[in-house]
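Before the break, one more example. Copy the sequence into your notebook; we will annotate it together after we see the structure.
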Amino acid sequence: DLALESNPSDHPRASTIFLSKSQTDVREKRKSNHINHVSPGQLTKKYSSCSTIFIDDSTVSQPNLRSTIKCVTLAIFYHIKNRDSDRSLDIFDEKSHPLTTTLFQREEVPDDYYKHDPDHKHIYRFVRTLFSAAQLTAECAIVTLVYLERLLTYAEIDICPSNWKRIVLGAILLASKVWDDQAVWNVDYCQILKDITVEDM
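Here is what the structure looks like once it is written out:
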């Protein structure tokens, strides 16, 4: 029976999920600019090619960690913002299992926590804190997004306000163990996240 189950690696998607979800916002912005006659401004001199991709001062051979994390967290933001439904599992629920990083004060999870989408800055701060404390690489951020998209594609779950922190943490944890030669231990994440045990991790 196991041999007959489909393997996500055998049939990768032609494009990422977040790309189609972000296109709606891009089209609306372009339409708004066209209606309001907003000029796109002067074009920059840098052009991406097969060997060099520019994101600020970032290239394929020397990726800029901060810029890469911003792009990945923007993808996560679009996943949450343009989700189709709110399917989740109790193990990911923020109210049952709150995650607080050592850099932020402990806050009570509000009763309507599942109604309000996090903004991009909030997601960025959470991911940046983990990457900085665990000293993860820019490549690990890309692998994190790949695992997150695989979960959303093949599991009956959506990333939403009530579960995004635990899903992102799980994707980062898995990506760091797969990508890095010397992966961060689970106990090290317990020093970054308050009130969390190794068993919970």
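The helical segments are 17-35, 65-81, 120-134, 138-154, 164-179, 186-192. The first helix runs from residue 17 to 35. Try to locate both features in your own notes.
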